[in-house]
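BUG: 3D viewer hangs when loading the predicted structure for this chain

Environment: internal workstation, default settings.
Expected: structure renders.
Actual: progress bar stalls at 90%.

Input used:
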Amino acid sequence: MKENKIIKLVHVAWRERWSDSQWGINIKNVIPRGVSGDVYNLSDCILQQALIGSTANPMILNYLKHSLCAHLVSYAAVLRRIAKYEHFDRIYCLTSLLDFVDSILDGVSCRTKAEESMLPGAIVSFVDWLMHIFATITTSYEMNRELSAEHSYLFDQCCAVIEKLVKNQFILAILFVGRQEAPDNYSKIRENYATIKTSLTNSNFTPPHPCVEKYLQQLAYIDVHHLDMKILDVQPLPEPISYCVQPLLAVEVLLNPCNDTSYYVAEMQMLQRLKKFSNTRLYYEIIRAGFVSLSSSVTSHDTIWGAFTFFKVPQIIKQLHAQNRAPSEQTPTDYIPEVVEAFEMLLEDNLLLDLMDSKCSCNIIDFTLNDWAKQHLVSEVHVKHFAAQREQEASLLLQKREWGNQTNSIINYIIRAEVPLSGILKTLCADYNKMQEALLGVLCQVLVGNSFDLILSVGAVEGRLKTFVQRLIQCNENSKQIPGEVGKTNIIRSAFFDVSFLMSISIVQTYGSHAVLPDNGDTFIEKWVRDYMVERNKPKNPRNMIAMCDDNIVEELLLTFSKPDAQIKNSNLTWQDICINIPGVINHVLSSWEKETLSAADVKNILDNIKRRMFTFSVCATAFLRAYMHSVTDKDLLKPLNMIQQFLTPPGNEEMSAQEYVKERLGLSFQIIRKMQYDAHPTGSLKSRILTLTQNLVSRNPLVEQFKEVWSTIANHGWVPPRAAQVLESLLHAGGPAWLSSQLVEEMLKCKYKKDMMKAMDIIFAISHLDIERITEALLTNVVPSIINNRQGEDVNEPHSYVLARLCVYCVISALETRNQPLQKKRSRSHDGDDHELNNAAKMRKIATDGSDNSCSNDFLTENSLLLGSSITALHANNMHDTAAAQLKEPLQSSIQYIFKIFQHFVASDELSPKIYFVYQFITLLVECGKERARPILKLLPANLMHNLLKLMLTDDINVGLIARLYDLGLNTGRQAAVSDLCLWRNIKLKQQSIQL
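Structure tokens produced before the viewer hung:
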């Protein structure tokens, strides 16, 4: 009924020649107040009457334009109705419609949800209609080889509308959404485009509008890159100096030296995407990072970096090249061009190369490239070319080194270790029964000097350490005590059992059981490590150790070890039994000593008898004492420490000569015991100590002072020395991720210039990989909300706000990609998966009673660790498991949800403040840096966050490209949210334009 009234009103208006205002007054008498004309097909009715004849009625078209301006009808309905016009032979009607569309395109917008839902489909249909007109014209030209005047005018009008469409970012964004919403209709656009391309090619027709072919292709293959987005990275090219690669590798080599090459490759690819490095630049940074870290290493202790630089770096680069190379790319077979270019860049760093030449006693470029040529990373021609460029400088440095009589090169140590490792692994596969004494000799020979450390370093880097441990364990199993065996055979067997146990435990102590042992191994060594060995974040209960002892065996051992010349004569008591029951013996001796039923001399005699037979027993005893020391107060530590010290007292010369390879085994046992003693009761100063990879922070200074000292070293260097990485890891273990991340961020915010801030941010991002997941959680839930809420106007202004947002986004993306890396069992040596939730902050330093964290005791035994705990415990307990974010795992998902809730609270106010701009920067950088990889994170965005942010900012910072990238357009909800935000953005822009007019 209403449609008939509208048609009659159009007839009356045309007959009486109503003006636009008269039409507007009378049409409102037909359409109820507050009701859109779309409900009654107003646009259909008007256009139906306007296009009756061979040409369009301009007066009636003006009525339609007035209805659009008066919001009586929607742009979506009008465009959809125009797209239904199929009389392509009526050229004058088509030209009138194109003129009409050209006049309204600048005002296309939406006001209601109903209009928003219609607009994407309407735009797709309209673009298809335009393509159809264009295809009709080109097909006509292909057939007739000329265009009539009418077709030429129509062609010009069509090109003008197409150009206007392409230059309208809002319409392009809606078309991009429509491509996902109406894929079938959009496929027709591509079919028409294919027809146009064929016609243009066959007819050799060149459109008078030079860019129209590009515009057509853009409409047919609309992509998110066609939508404008403000890039916050003011430096589109990579920075001239990178402060990120070396610190990241320093942390990863510290934590994960045994990881497969693919792990490092994934890390470097993530960094390459974030920093926009070319392959050449990435290879250069990796090579330089190895040299820089090696230049600060100590020859006898940091062999892992030498092995990493010379053995692992070439493998990383080869895998990177294989994965980054395009399938169609043709590269030489004997070298990689980007590697050659990387060395050309490296040759400009003369100071670094001079230092490396001096340290390694050779032309480091010549030495490195000779090995790389064998792996086809460079060719022989390149080796000669680059070596010649460094020959003069290297020879002068080597002459000075000879005059100074300095120590041997670290390269000699590293290269010497590669061949023995292969030989040892092969030897350990030999028949144990036939080569028992020879195998013992080989293993003990490895313990001479620092050969063992070198072999372990090479084995860890090359991924052969786990194999080495498994073969040692198998040797230990083969050397179990045989009842009744006496003489030299028994002596050899016991020495073999001893050395294989000590070597295995030493490796586990250095690299962690998670890196070299399976989870549920059933061999003696694997069970002993699981039940008795105290590792970081794997504390052992001394009561459990005692409970596993057999009282009868303990009593027998006590009687035996109490004798002046102890000999274990009971053939039924094996070495494994003694190892398992040693804790009961030590506990009894310690209790008796404390009760003064045993004298110090008696205790010394028992301990000497324990270590006299086999050094494995003293290690097992020390393992119990270490666990015991973690369960008592400081005043009860003296006697256990004295007992450990007794195990470190060398035996007499007569005892030394009575055993096979006693010096080698004794030295290794001392090394293991010293580490246990050091971890149980750290002493000494921070500057003088030599840390191993498993040792804790050692200092009685407050944590803050220790942090400032190590940060000063890092800031002065511009990179992270391996020793500094060890100290930072210990600080993380002692203070927790919230404390460490807050200290790091404070140092970054102290910088006054953006260049210094970005340098600090890169280093902090790399340091965060000490435990990227927990530090990211701390940043998002503790550090950043506190800074933004409590220090607004101080540190959240530019450029601090931008750098802080970038740090957060980098950490979020890295944490996300870390979770998605396959086949990586552990992320950090200091935190074993979810176990840290149960043992969180156990044995940490106490916070002073005044609440200050600037002083701390050396007591790691308190259970009252209040180190800046997470403020969202309840959020973890009531975690939301959104199916849309199934790829995210804890704690990252809860952290993202928490920070987004904070953002939602910010934008709910009507106040435009720096924290609002921080929200914009965080979201924009997440889209800019994460791209499609950030999709699981963006799915957690609250529904109205962007909507409210648009209303608050009212600036040119937010463009359609950002809005289109925020949502998953494959989902209906994502498309609805995107169109709603786009329409709000459009209306804000139109309002600003009207104010300017």
